[in-house]
Amino acid sequence: MRPRVLTVAGSDSGGGAGIQADLKTMLALGVHGMSVVTAVTAQNSRGVQGAWELPVEAVRAQYRSVVDDIGVQAVKTGMLASAELVEAVAELLADTDAPAVVDPVGVSKHGDALLAASALDSVRSRLLPVATVATPNLDEVAQLTGVHVESEEGLREAAAAVLVYGPRWVLIKGGHLPGDAVDLLTDGTEEHWLRAPRHDNRHTHGTGCTLASAIASRLAAGDSVPDAVRVAKAYVTGAVAAGFALGGGIGPVDHGW
Ligand code: PLP
Q1: What is the ipTM of this complex?
Q2: What are the extents of the domains in the chain?
Q3: Residue 208: CB within 6 Å of ligand 1?
Q4: Are 45 and 249 in contact, with CB atoms under 8 Å apart?
Q5: 17 alpha carbon to ligand 1 midpoint, in Å?
Q6: Which residues are catalytic?
Q7: Which end of the chain is more exposed for a tag (fewer CB within 10 A), N or C?
Q8: Record's NCBIfam families (predicted)?
Q9: Are 232 and 223 a contacting pair, CB within 8 Å?
Q10: What is 4-139+204-241's CATH topology?
């Protein structure tokens, strides 16, 4: 049977990030993509103009509909908006026998908040403990742990600070550092350094969503975590290289590269 992957995330009306990026990634990687919408954003290449979260019952009902009938081999979480939604989703994940890729989305590239500040404690205490892989970028590491990374060497300290909260693996995304795009994947024992040349392309909207969805897609297909992350990194590197201009701001990564 075709592997089935579920994204629990926000909608990006511009089609570049969120649920829309997740489903495009899943299609490109040959799995069946499904979605639980947590929030709706009015969004384009210039930023987020508005965001509305769904009621917790609507999120729970979507999740149960999918998991109880169709089943999932992996789940990815993205924008969860509020403490209430973070806690409800963490409970659902704890109840699901499938790996969970948690992208602890905080703020968009344009600086728009996608998670309430009051939800950070719930991410730390409820969501990270049920993650198979957590995929924070350096801003999210700083928000969650207080660790500010300024060099590649600092990625180790960041990983240790996130692992304290209990995810099995953490992938620290060092893409905001100058030079090559370097990420560190570790479970506290093994270390995998992933390096890709930086593409001089500002059209990178949806990078984080794409990476996390690609990891979930490969986990659903049976890869180990290090193998899934390696394939996902190659996929997102291609998608960023092919990112294209749309609207008047930052365009999306391309899933048709
Ligand atoms: N909008 C939604 C709904 C998202 O889930 C995300 C990221 O996870 C973004 C926007 C931000 O995308 P980016 O920071 O790549 O522009």
Answers
A1: 0.91
A2: 4-139+204-241
A3: yes
A4: yes
A5: 5
A6: 173, 204, 206-209
A7: N
A8: HMP-P_kinase (TIGR00097)
A9: no
A10: UDP-N-acetylmuramoyl-L-alanine:D-glutamate ligase (3.40.1190)
